[in-house]
Amino acid sequence: MKxxxxxxxxxxxxAGTVYTSVGNAVNAAPVQSKHTAETxxxxxxxxxxxxxxxxxxxxxxxxxxxxxxxxxxxxxTKYLPDFKMNDERxxxxxxxxxxxxxxxxxxxxxxxxxxxENVDSFVHDNIFDVVSGLRLRADPGEYACxxxxxxxxxxxxxENVSGMSYTDYVRNNIASKIGADxxxxxxxxxxxxxxxxxxxxxxxxxxxxYPYVMVAGTGGIYATASDVANFGSAFxxxxxxLLSDDAKTQMSTRWNDDEKYESYGLGWDFxxxxxxxxxxxxxxxxxGDVPYMHSSLLVAPDEQISAAVLTAGNDSSSQYAxxxxxxxxxxxxxxxxxxxxxxxxxxxxxxxxxxxxYKKYEGLYCIGGxxxxxxxxxxxxxxxxxxxxxxxDNSSPEIFKITEDGGFVKVxxxxxxxxxxxxxxxxxxxxKIFIRTxxxxxxxGLGIYQGIVGNAAGMYTGEKMEENPVPRSVQQSWDExxxxxxxxxxxxxxxxxxxxxxYRVVTDEAFPGYILVKNSVGARVExxxxxxxxxxxxxxxxxxxxxxxxxxxxxxxxxxxxxxASFDLSDGTRCRSVDSLPAFxxxxxxxxxxxxEAVWYRVGKDMGGKSIxxxxxxxxxxxxYNKFRELLYSTHIKDAVNAIDLPPDGYIAFAGETxxxxxxxx
Length: 666
Hints:
Blueprint: H1 4-12, E1 18-26, E2 29-32, E3 47-48, H2 54-66, H3 95-99, E4 114-116, H4 122-132, H5 149-162, H6 166-175, E5 184-185, H7 186-190, E6 202-203, E7 206-207, E8 211-213, H8 216-219, E9 221-223, H9 225-232, H10 245-251, H11 274-277, E10 284-290, E11 293-300, E12 305-312, H12 318-335, E13 363-368, E14 373-380, E15 385-390, E16 398-402, E17 408-411, E18 421-429, E19 432-443, E20 447-450, E21 458-464, H13 472-481, E22 485-488, E23 502-506, E24 514-519, E25 523-530, E26 533-535, E27 551-557, E28 563-569, E29 574-577, E30 583-584, E31 590-592, E32 599-603, E33 611-615, E34 621-625, E35 631-634, E36 644-645, E37 651-655, E38 661-665
Helix pairs in contact: 1-12, 2-5
């Protein structure tokens, strides 16, 4: 990737604010490089660095390993006696497994993980209760699958072993040792310890108040790009300021030698990159996303290069931050006479005839990527493979042609290979059939994004689904649930989850015995067991199997005095049917608030198209959504007006703390 690509990628990331810094160190003395691209923010702007935070909790644990206080292959229970799960295999989870994503813990992030305007200890204090009811997705150590919860547990390991809060540990043992004055947790930033140079954030064109991520070990470190690049220099060969060389070597060693799997290290998303390996250059990397902020850190330890990119924008992602970081890395390497070229996907040879034995691969598959999965039907007609998404409005199947090596390459309607190369392979293992996908995404003028996660040529992306015959009464019960929409109600008043609170169940005659659970973020496939339970079931050996949850239907009494079914996820999320919501009518003048339970209404016919004003306490919020379940109004928007338009057939929610109330005026 050439120098001119930096400007091109900056433009691509302009959904928010972009700036970068490259740490360029000689003899373990990091200095700022001249290669800096920025837009409207100054070099001192503070961002949440999202999942790059995992490198800080990983480094903290490795410091304790260096001190002989933690053993990587000791069970987690040695350091966290309160850690228990609803699965006896949890006793086999080691500290190393938390760090390299092989623990088998299925859960992603818990409720209330990101809060506007305030910080609290809810997530930190309740983590052991949350995980206690979970079952594992796989035997500990069986395969690597991205796991947020493991790093929250590592945060507790650091606290228990060191005897200090995680915030204090980061300040005393990491930030202060490298002069990172603007690095800390959400608590540090909220207290003003990092200064007052937070990046400006926007929802569309509207400025929002600042969100604080409560899972510090997982995604809640705040820093400037220069601080993060400086932190990256701690992994340089010969730099012993924070870690021993042995600790750094262990962290940069991939969890498994099989190249079919993602190349996770300890904390790192990848510790091998094919196009750099071809030039005998080792590069490790970590990316991250939280709402409104995204990050990427690349380190070439032997070349003494650290590149950090932090971006802001609701429509951006760490993928773009990663493209920028790679561009910066390549520029510095090129100046040193080491030119790294983009990978050129091999041109597969397409053949005309699909052997009959491929018919055994026909059927339904759970298939997906990093944040979402779905159900597809795969069929063959002798010359092509067809992949049809089910439970969606997409009626046109994707077409694939068989290649000489037995893979299937995606083609367009004319039978030509697409520029974004996608090749799928069927693989039988452990009496199951899996799909593995090699993918290269082309960004004209920017380069090629390699793989599903950017760290390997491909990954396992699908699993053939077994038939799941259930009693007719069970199927009918879930079919009835699919006729409504569910809405989250048990988050705190300042939780970001109220921006995307709606869920729905999708059933289909094409996949009996299974459901799709969808929200605006993505979808998950669940297997029905009875009228009240649906469970995760997949064993895809990759990060396509992340963030799994079970579902239980319970009966709840709500703060508004109603009682109805609750749609409960094992990650702690609770939802209620919008059909059970009372109408927001003209005679409502006061809304009593309740801690941890939003008060929801459907906009009544007499109020649709009208406006209200509210008088509310500080620790409260109001949200309005249209009939398409899109957020139209939030008091978390800076300087939100107090004239609230109510859309016909929409929804309005009030959230706050017990004892307070919201007064309504017309």
